[in-house]
Amino acid sequence: MIKHNFDELINRKGTECKKWDTYADDVIPMWIADTDFKCPQPVIDAMVKRAEHGIYGYPVNDKNFEEAIVNWQKKRFGWKIESEWVEYTPAVIPAIVYAIYAFTNPGDNIVIQMPAYHPFHAIIPNNGRHILGNNLILQEDGSYEIDFENLESLLSQKRTTMFLLCSPHNPTGKCFTREELNKISELCLKHNVFVVSDEIHSDIIYKGSKHIPFGSLSQEAADNCVVCVNPSKTFNIAGVRTGAAVIPNRRNHDLFYAPLENLKAYGRTIFGTLPIEISYNECDYYADQLLEYLEGNLEYLKKFLAEKIPKIKIGHPQATYLIWLNCKELNMEPAKLQQFFMEEAKVAMNEGSTFGTGGAGFMRMNIACPRARLVKALNQIEKSVNML
Ligand SMILES: Cc1ncc(COP(=O)(O)O)c(C=O)c1O
């Protein structure tokens, strides 16, 4: 079996890299959600081989892409899907936008759980729909619970037609239990609300939790959802801008496909589908080793904060490599907090209030980097906090 070296420090500067080419050279970037790890060797080999062919004409839509998605869902999550349920999309966010076009009307309400991944705050109003935020409730131990009572009152509003679920949840790192997902599904069915489940982070689930694809809950749930997937977070291939939607119900599938067809957005890219096929078909070893490495980073972070920076707290991250840090004891307004980490500690993270209600006082740290870089960043943060 190939052993991937996640400790390798790779220079990404000057590669048109959003994470590394946005801030000054002396800032350690731990913000946007891609990893600093090289992608799996079989992916690199396949891309090089395809590039060397030298002809990059129109691709035919064969079934290899769909089969790769079918494969992964079955072997990793036990969800048996058909290749006919899978639709190519240019990444996950465009897939969510197509779903908004397909299953809601202008002026409708779409429910999201706050705090929420920041593009959700844009794509809903930008397309003429309203956001209804259901606040996740922060518990004493740092975990989050769903306020089901409020959720139902939002779902029951006349113009509420969609629930946009982020499962597992970015930015809190919550992995929803089967019981919670079933309850969401029941409430959405009861109030005729369609579910879009963004499952882009589903491969990064820490010990003790389990990802359950929304469409695998029941026949009724499957008939009332679109599940959006992308191996981009796991295998570090977000730049190829390709993803997929799984739509189990044929009628829903046709509704979803209509905006893609109208926008002529179904054209695939040969360098988009290939890495997805190779990752999902041949690179389980990489996903397993990545998770193990991230567990190590997370343990290091927890111990470091507890022993050296107790004013910064993490709750119970169950999923994703985006760690939600409670910095309220630093007593700073959001703008000041961002400035402190960026200018004093020289570590770029996502400031919590950009995720909406419940985000102020938090910072989101991306720990998908070689351990040495995490150690350096934490030492810098410790030094700056001690100087306050
Ligand atoms: C929850 C979530 N959805 C979607 C995306 C973006 O996906 P894509 O690049 O496939 O549009 C991200 C990226 O960070 C994310 O965290």
Automatic annotation (TrEMBL):
Keyword Lyase: yes
Record keywords: Lyase, Pyridoxal phosphate
Position of the signal peptide: none
SUPFAM superfamilies associated with the record: PLP-dependent transferases (SSF53383)
InterPro entries: Aminotransferase_I/II_large (IPR004839), C-S_lyase_PatB-like (IPR027619), Class-II_PLP-Dep_Aminotrans (IPR051798), PyrdxlP-dep_Trfase (IPR015424), PyrdxlP-dep_Trfase_major (IPR015421), PyrdxlP-dep_Trfase_small (IPR015422)
Gene Ontology terms for molecular function: cysteine-S-conjugate beta-lyase activity; pyridoxal phosphate binding
Lineage top rank: taxon: Bacteria
Chain ranges of the Aminotransferase class I/classII large domain: 35-380
Cofactor(s) of this protein: pyridoxal 5'-phosphate
EC number(s) on file: 4.4.1.13
Pfam families attached to this UniProt entry: Aminotran_1_2
Membership in a protein family: Belongs to the class-II pyridoxal-phosphate-dependent aminotransferase family. MalY/PatB cystathionine beta-lyase subfamily.
Descriptive protein name: cysteine-S-conjugate beta-lyase
Organism: Propionispira arboris
